[in-house]
Amino acid sequence: MTGILDTLAEVLIRNGLVTAFAFVGLTVWISYFISGKLTKGRIHGSAIAILLGLVLAYVGGVTTGGTQGLADIEILAGVGLLGGAMIRDFAIIATAFGVSMDEIRRAGKGAVLSLFAGVIVSFIVGAAIAFVFGYTDPVSMTTLGAGAATYIVGPVTGTALGATSEVMALSVAAGLVKSMLVMTGTPFVARFIGLNNPRSALVYGGLMGTTSGVAGGLAATDPKLVPYGAMTATFYTGLGCLLGPSIIFVIIRALFG
Amino acid sequence: MVIYGVSILAACMIAGLVLGELLGQLIGVQANVGGVGIAMLLMILLSDKLRKAGKLKPLTERGILFWSSIYIPVVVAMAAKQNVLAAVEGGPAAILAGAGAVVVSFALVPVLSRIGPAPADAAGGADPSGEGDALGERDASGDGDASGDGQGRS
Questions:
Q1: Is A54 within 8 Å of B112 when comparing Cβ atoms?
Q2: Same structural domain for residues A133 and A51?
């Protein structure tokens, strides 16, 4: 019996990406089953699938102590490749096929404004929370603010400003919390914030900025909106890395330095 | 051939990422600035041009539509590889900073959506033709519920 299991594990490990296809397919199937039978379709199958993915990632993190969620479990390493930036971006770009250029042009100004508003608001909230928790020096405040933007802006800004590793870790955690809340919360708030057309999706992407959060959140809300939100969101991290260690840090230092 | 579609998609991605990388270097940040967004714009312009020229064969389209329809499973895999443990263990400061940013940003969506000229035709413009085909099946079920409820409340 152990011989068969060993052989199975070996095959699964050697064909990681194919294993991931089978595994994710099963996860999605279970999620749609739960959605249909237990919630009567009220909670979208893909929302449940994403939530299930996050729960599994937590389990993976606890059992292996790694940073890659479920992908740290050897036989499921392929999930890391399938859900990694390369394949994810490839699929996101494919969703742009057939998108109407007019919608994008029409929402242009609002989308650009939403990028700046999203970055600035996140820094303000993050810096304020940092202050409340006793991190009152401008470097720590800016770094935690950067983490509230995205978990990439956090460490990039922290490194540029020379933040402590404790604050850097906090900023990454803040960014991860944001990404996960956007993924799971979007389908529930969508109707209250008018997230049901390309224009508000473009603005939403610019305000949220976390590519993974926006990708997951819109997928669970309305897949038609994915390309619009994803497009603006991909500019956010760059803008955050640009503004964080420069203008925003200078302002925070002037106010609290 | 199907590979032409996949290849067009790949070319758009590479071109976009290179441009995003260069843009990052130009403004001096250690990040790819909008690479995926630029790739998406290239994809939109290119597919529009090819379609008008009659050069976009159904088989070519299929190579692109497959990847756009595999998008949700990819996102599920992405969720499963997140560092959820680190997020949970970040403690109240990290959780409040992340959650606060999300709440305020959500609240700003309706405010900023009003900027710019009004949509010419809200119903007509919203549904790009190619996409409806790829994702239509799973749209139909969830969509009806959500919009029905939404109208009831507002």
A1: no
A2: no
Domain membership flag for residue A18: yes
> Which residue type sits at B69?
S
Interface contact A224-B71, CB threshold 8 A: no
CB-CB under 8 Å, A62 with B82: no
Please state, in angstroms and rounded to a whole number, the distance separating the CA atoms of residues B138 and A122. Answer: 33
Structure ipTM: 0.84
- Is residue A224 in some structural domain? yes
**Rounded distance, CA A15 to CA A8, Å?**
11
Burial class from Cβ neighbours inside 10 Å (0-12, 13-18, 19+) for residue B55 reads exposed
In the stretch 92-151 of chain A, residues with CB closer than 8 A to chain B read 92-104, 106-110, 113-114, 117-118, 121-122, 125-126, 128-130, 133, 135, 144-145, 147-149
CB pairs under 8 A between A and B: 408
Q: Please give the residue range of the domain that contains residue A111.
A: 102-256
With a CB cutoff of 8 Å and minimum separation 6, the contacts of A105 are: none
Q: Say yes or no: A45 and A106 in one domain.
A: no
A242: contact with B, CB 8 A cutoff: yes
* Cβ <8 Å between A219 and B23: no
Q: Name the domain count of chain A.
A: 2
In a shared domain, residues A145 and A215:
yes
> pLDDT tens digits, residue range A126-185?
999 999 999 999 999 999 999 999 988 888 888 888 888 888 888 989 998 999 899 999
pLDDT in tens, chain B (154 residues): 899 999 999 999 999 999 999 988 887 777 778 888 889 889 989 988 888 888 888 999 999 999 988 988 998 998 898 888 888 887 899 999 999 999 999 999 999 988 766 554 444 334 343 333 333 333 333 333 333 333 333 3
